[in-house]
Structures are given as structure tokens and as C-alpha cells.
Amino acid sequence: MSLKHALLGILHAQPMNGYRLARFFAGAQSWVWSAPQSQVYGVLRTLSDEGLIVGEEQAGAAGPRTTVYSLTATGQHELREWIATPHPAPPLRDPFALQALLFDLVDPDEAVPAVRAYLADQERLVTEWTEHRDALLRMDTPLLRARLETRDAAEHERIARLKANVFDGQLEVARARAAWARRTLELLAERAPARPST
């Protein structure tokens, strides 16, 4: 997976300027990919250099001119090819799992704040992803509405359900992680038996 293909996917739905794209990715907690502004602009330059997108100067909403990017035919081909190609899972890097693996090295009370923070984060994700999934099912997100404008009305419900299904998967993962965090708190609450004095 890459920011390159995430950008192509968004631009397939709706042409945007770099600022709007950067804002989209900066606030992408409710999406499946996030990126800092500097990366977004760098990848836009690369996509333009590769002929996958084209920029058109337009008057900006606030006055100054802006470049609005859209996919080229080559960009559409690249996106479709990438979507249809199996990709290996990225290497596993889970900071909290690594932390939890080492909880036996600290007093249980020292580990509890990290577990509670992780649990709160997973519960927040459950809330955000539920809201986003529900908005997709209502066909009530700006990007989905833009995408549906170019699709046959008979496909709209299926497209919305396909997109919502992604967030159903994210919800299952977040709920499982929250349950795991609760079990971890229970294990931390169990005190090791006192060592016999000699």
C-alpha cells in the first residue's frame, strides 16, 4: 500500500488541489491511510512527473490561484492495475504489543497507564469508524458522493456497502484490541505470589 495509490484513489473520485488533499490526509483518522502534508505534496510532484496526474491552474476560493489535480488515463490504468494486484502484508510493527510483551519487567502499576491509554484509543476508533461506516451506508460522505456522481445509480448501494465493509473490518480489529487490553488489565491486576523469605 502506498500514499501514491491512496492519492490516485481520491483523485479518481474528485479532482482536488494539494491543500485539500493534505487536509484530507491530515484528518484521516476515520480513513485507512494518513500522511503528513510534506509527503502529500512530494508524492503529488512525483505523480505529476510520472504522468499519472495533471495539474490545472484555477482561481482559488479565497483569491490566489491554485493547482487542481486530476487523474490522467495513465493514472487510471495504474490505479486499476494496483487494485487488482495482490500485495504482501507489510512487516508487523506494533509498538503496544512490544510494550505488552515486556510488561513483566516493570511493576504492574507502572504498565496500567499505557494499557488504559491504548484501550481508550481503541474505543475512540470504534466510535469514529462506526460513525464513518454509518455515513458510508447513508451515502453521506463528500468523497463517496463525488464518486457516485460518475457511477450508475443501480451500483450506488453496492458501492456504499463495499466501502462500509472496510470499516466493519476495522471495527472488528479495534473491538478485538479493546477486549485484549481489558484482559491485559485483568492480568496486571493479578499480583504474583510473594517470594518466600529465606
TrEMBL record:
SUPFAM superfamilies, sorted: Winged helix' DNA-binding domain (SSF46785)
The protein's name: PadR family transcriptional regulator
Coiled-coil ranges from the UniProt annotation: none
Domain of life: Bacteria
Transmembrane segments: none
Domain Transcription regulator PadR N-terminal as annotated: residue spans: 7-81
Organism: Georgenia yuyongxinii
